[in-house]
Amino acid sequence: MTPIGDNDLGPVGGARAPRRSSRAAASPGRPGADGAPSWRKRLRRLGQLGAVLLVLTSPLWGRAILRRMDFFRVRRVVIEGARYASPDEIVSRLRVDTTASIWDDVSPLAARVREHPQVRDVRIGRRLPGTLVVRVTENPPVALVNSAKGLVVTGAAGEALPVDPTATDVDLPVLASRDTLLLRLLGEVRAEVPQLFARVSEARRGSRGEVVLVLPEHRILARGDVTPARLAEVLPVELDLARRGRRVEELDLRFRDQVVARLP
What we know:
The protein is an alpha/beta fold. The chain has eight helices and eleven strands.
């Protein structure tokens, strides 16, 4: 039994038998060179071809036959979509080796990978003849939350993610504490207004419960129920102010249908 890694497959094939000189076809019903009538030989070949097609297209016992063929043993595992999760950790959760077939049921494998705290979803496909392709959708980190143990990489649902900020390049907003409202908002902004999320260096609550987003250039104030679409309204205002050469200290979204710019 050999564990599987991300190894390349070698060529599969064999030497082709030399071609023989053609002979005159036997007349119908007369024996061929091997003593069998030619129509029987053709019938036998058609039967073999039909059997192969039936095995490949049968959803039940056909796959069981393919699973027993050495040609379809797993030789390689490819991990796609893993930016923060370690591919080695995902492969170890699969627990497959060279005795496994790519036609084995992949549901148990996917279930084990989904238990990884960094993984939101996973799809496992096949690449003939012997490669499993694991496509991972991760839980994206949205903030660095201050804790007694230092900064913790955290997801939108408030879960701590197994990402070491000292070893991985994570440019995320900093939160003084685990605020579920701010984390959920940051997750939505990351998904819907990524150009704004990339500029947020800090998120916090104001003295009256308002949302405060700190950007390198200025602050954004908003109500606690602010949506990503409402936050995106600051983008054209920023462009207009920059075009006029005006420096702004604060953009206030707390007033209905308005963006109030406070200058220094």
